[in-house]
Design brief:
Elements: E1 6-12, H1 22-33, E2 41-42, E3 46-52, H2 69-73, H3 86-92, H4 100-111, E4 120-130, E5 136-142, H5 145-148, H6 154-183, H7 188-224, H8 228-256, H9 260-285, H10 290-314, H11 321-342, H12 349-389, H13 395-433, E6 438-439, E7 449-450, H14 451-492, E8 498-499, E9 502-503, H15 507-551, H16 559-566, H17 573-592, H18 594-598, H19 605-617, H20 626-643, E10 648-654, H21 656-670, H22 674-678, E11 683-688, H23 692-699, E12 728-733, E13 759-761, E14 764-768, H24 783-794
Parallel strand pairs: 1-5, 1-10, 10-11, 11-12, 12-14
Antiparallel strand pairs: 2-4, 3-4, 4-5, 6-7, 8-9, 13-14
Helix pairs in contact: 3-6, 4-20, 6-7, 6-13, 6-17, 6-19, 7-10, 7-11, 7-12, 7-13, 8-9, 8-10, 10-11, 11-12, 12-13, 12-15, 13-14, 13-15, 13-17, 14-15, 14-17, 15-16
Length: 798
């Protein structure tokens, strides 16, 4: 090897490594410290490298100015309720069947309209120099979290939970579409697809939007509690600001407009601005009609806020714009009608505003109950049909159907539990301001009572009924926590497996115990969920339907009534208390922000993992699939490295980064485009904590058939490095990694968690770094990893 050889390492981060520059620094530090003897590398400078990004075309790229049939059919993924995914529609018009994984990549790349902000990527490069021969080694960063996740901090963490909450049912429907494609299913399979598609829409549409309507009523009620002497000033400030905004919009419309409409828009906006200014002055100088003006302004504010939120939501979710607008307009319209009807009976302004808001909220609550009743009714049908269709099918189909059930039931359980917590918090906060308001219900309950008691009673009844569900969720969470507790301990306080003398006393035994405990726990949890989850979901759904009938007055006696009486002891108090504690915790996390993320925020890895999976398969209506954006950036960085004159490329990829790297390389290799992209440079991959086998191949086997099987042993297991167009593939793992561990080694291998036990066969290498969890892969005890990276940079074969 010549002394002028230059080698490039591309570092791809994984989950929980969201800060730019973090992973590339850790790899550079490990290379400068790891390995026996003197440090092999001198630390060099870090520079920012600007990489122009071009859209990565799909394998069957259309001619300029043209669109493929698949792209044409993919313009509206799930735009209509009950419609299959855009990927399924595209495959229906495809001329020939392809590998589903390759086809999905083609589809998502074809969907991409590269945003302007993605056209230039600022990478980081750490330049190192090898001490013995002066050989240059440049470590580049391939950062992708900004294209997939929301970032660090408390508010983003709460937003992440919201995304998980509503997207799981859509992911379940996508998996069912993949099963239908893989099995060429028709008839009953089409019914299963429709059921899951409707379930996805019901979760993101009526259930979410009716909750939004309830929150708007809460906002209107909060406005009612503003002191009367402040209402005029508040109106003057709001309408004064509105007049300024309308005037600015009028000027902008006049400057940008053309023809007669230019003056028409200007006149209309200026007229509205003058009316807004006149209203502001009117609110300041007189008490006449102030109460009615404040009522109308508050309703208008809720309408504008709801309309804005629906528009923002519709950018990310198909099929919600029209129903969202209807919910907002109907809710505010009903509020105005109820206000006019109740005005002669009101004695105070707060009463005039609060009672209509409570009336409308009751109707919206009924809408929530009915929407979720429709959801669980379809859920029963989907579960039973999926179980029936899975009979006699191969393992890949059965595993995919189980994945769809898992996501579907998880989505409905999260909806029920988190909604109860939300409204427990709202009832606790709102109840303080409604203690003196007497209220007569229109739908739920009877009698004249304080509004505070009415709201608490609603939450307590719902809480009493759903307490078994909450207990079941807590039981599952508790079981998962017990299984993961040793690994979580490693996340917060990692074990050092090595010292100056080698393996620490007791470290080898701890690594084996940790690995065996996690393997056994995951196996038991998986078996239990596979058996108990469908049964529990069906029983709970049937009881919920009976409960809704009883609440709406259609079934005053029977099973539902007996169940309510049985659970009266709970009275929802546990949920109310839990809601208050969780709300306080959420505010605390939001206040701590990045401090929380850098400490206990490491425990967000599980949420981040779900988000990564969701975003990796996502096909948003804004034509910016995260996977396609990441692939385009990654391919452009590879091209940049190719043109920089390096002799070889070594990719070091952690967690989700290993999935992105392996699948992109395979995709390009299968289509014969990898060589042209990297210029024939030798490629080697080092994967760390990779979920390719334990998560993706297990949960989405139809897309990852190329992963092959481990049944024949390490040497014969798939995939081979050559299948991805690489010269060598090294996989390292820690025994307590709950996201990803082995790729080729069978789980039954008694030495699978032995520290330093390196398995080699041809172009593949796999070994355990010892105890640890999903982070800290580049700590000082990762000496074996540093040695392997150094070997690959030298171009030495295994």
């Amino acid at each position: 090897m010549s002394a002028i050889d230059r080698v490039a390492i591309i570092v791809v981060h994984g989950i929980a490594d969201q800060r730019p520059g973090q992973t590339v620094r850790e790899v550079a530090r490990l290379l400068c410290r790891g390995g026996p003897g003197a440090p092999p590398y001198e630390q060099g400078e870090m520079v920012h490298v600007l990489v122009p990004v071009e859209r990565l075309e799909p394998g069957e790229a259309p001619e300029p100015g043209e669109a493929s049939e698949a792209a044409k059919s993919a313009q509206a993924p799930r735009r209509q309720p009950g419609a299959p995914s855009g990927f399924y529609q595209a495959q229906q018009v495809a001329t020939e069947a392809k590998d589903l994984g390759v086809a999905l990549n083609d589809y998502l790349l074809g969907r991409l309209a590269l945003p302007q902000g993605d056209e230039l990527y600022e990478s980081r490069r750490v330049s190192l120099r090898r001490r013995p021969d002066g050989r240059a080694l440049d470590v580049f960063e391939m950062y992708w979290a900004d294209l997939s996740r929301l970032g660090a901090g408390g508010l983003q963490a709460l937003s992440s939970l919201y995304q998980v909450f509503f997207h799981l049912s859509t992911l379940a429907a996508d998996v069912v579409d993949q099963v239908a494609l893989g099995t060429k299913g028709a008839g009953a399979w089409r019914w299963l697809q429709r059921l899951h598609a409707w379930l996805a829409w019901l979760m993101k549409g009526p259930t979410a939007l009716s909750q939004l309507g309830l929150l708007l009523m809460v906002g209107f009620g909060a406005a009612a509690l503003v002191a009367r002497e402040l209402q005029g000033q508040l109106l003057a400030a709001a309408f004064g600001l509105g007049s300024i905004v309308l005037t600015a919009l009028g000027a902008l419309a006049w400057l940008r407009g053309t023809g007669p409409t230019r003056w028409a828009k200007l006149a209309a906006l200026l007229a509205l601005a003058l009316a807004s200014l006149a209203t502001a002055l009117f609110a300041l100088i007189t008490e006449l009609w102030l109460a009615r003006l404040y009522f109308a302004a508050s309703a208008l504010a809720m309408a504008l806020l709801g309309w804005y939120l629906v528009e923002r939501y519709a950018r990310l979710t198909e099929g919600v714009r029209l129903p969202g607008r209807l919910v907002v307009l109907a809710g505010v319209g009903a509020l105005v009608v109820e206000g006019a009807r109740f005005l002669p009976h009101a004695t105070t302004q707060p009463e005039w505003m609060l009672v209509p808001a409570l009336h409308v909220a009751e109707w919206l609550l009924a809408l929530v109950l009915l929407a979720f009743a429709a959801f669980v009714a379809l859920q029963i049908a989907a579960i039973l049909l999926g179980l029936w269709l899975g009979r006699g099918r191969d393992a890949a189909v059965r595993a995919s159907l189980h994945t769809a059930r898992l996501f579907l039931i998880g989505s409905s359980a999260l909806f029920a539990v988190l909604s109860l917590v939300l409204w427990s918090v709202v009832s606790y906060v709102a109840g303080r301001g409604l203690a003196d308001l007497l209220y007569t219900p229109v739908l739920f309950g009877r009698g004249y009572r304080p509004a505070e008691i009415f709201i608490e009673e609603r939450v307590q009844i719902l809480g009493g009924f759903f307490t078994p569900l909450v207990a079941a969720v807590l039981l599952v969470v508790g079981a998962v926590f017990v299984v993961l507790l040793p690994s979580l301990r490693e996340e917060l306080s990692p074990t050092g497996n090595l010292d100056a003398k080698g393996v620490k006393p007791g470290a080898a035994e701890w690594a084996r115990r940790l690995g065996n405990w996690l393997s056994l726990g995951v196996r038991v949890l998986g078996t239990g969920l596979k058996v108990l989850l469908p049964l529990g979901a069906i029983v709970g759904s049937v009881l919920y339907l009976a409960f809704v009938l009883q609440q709406l007055g259609f079934a005053g006696r029977g099973l539902a009534a007996w169940l309510i009486e049985l659970l009266d002891a709970f009275q929802g108090e546990t949920l109310v208390a839990a809601g208050k504690w969780l709300a306080g915790g959420a505010v605390t996390f939001a206040a701590l922000g990045s401090r929380f993320t850098r400490t206990f925020g490491r425990l967000r890895v599980a949420v981040d993992a779900v988000l990564d999976v969701d975003n990796y398969f996502a096909d948003p209506p804004n034509r910016q699939p995260p996977r396609a954006r990441i692939y385009s950036r990654y391919a452009s960085l590879l091209a940049h490295v190719r043109d920089a004159g390096y002799e070889r490329i070594v990719i070091v990829a952690h967690s989700q980064g290993s999935v992105i790297s392996a699948e992109l390389l395979r995709y390009l290799h299968v289509q014969g485009r990898l060589r042209s992209l990297v210029g024939g440079l030798p490629l080697a991959l080092v994967s760390l904590g990779s979920p390719l086998r334990n998560l993706y191949a297990e949960r989405f086997p139809l897309l990852y058939r190329w992963m092959g099987s481990r049944a024949a042993g390490f040497a014969a297991a798939g995939p081979a490095a050559a299948d991805l167009g690489m010269t060598e593939w090294v996989n390292a793992y820690r025994s307590g990694d709950y996201v990803g561990r082995v790729i080729w080694t069978p789980d039954q291998d008694p030495e699978v968690f032995d520290i330093g036990k390196t398995r080699r066969a041809g172009e593949r290498t796999e070994f355990c770094l010892g105890a640890g969890a999903h982070t800290h892969y580049f700590s000082d005890d990762a000496v074996a990893l540093a040695v392997e990276i150094e070997r690959l940079t030298k171009g030495q074969s295994s």
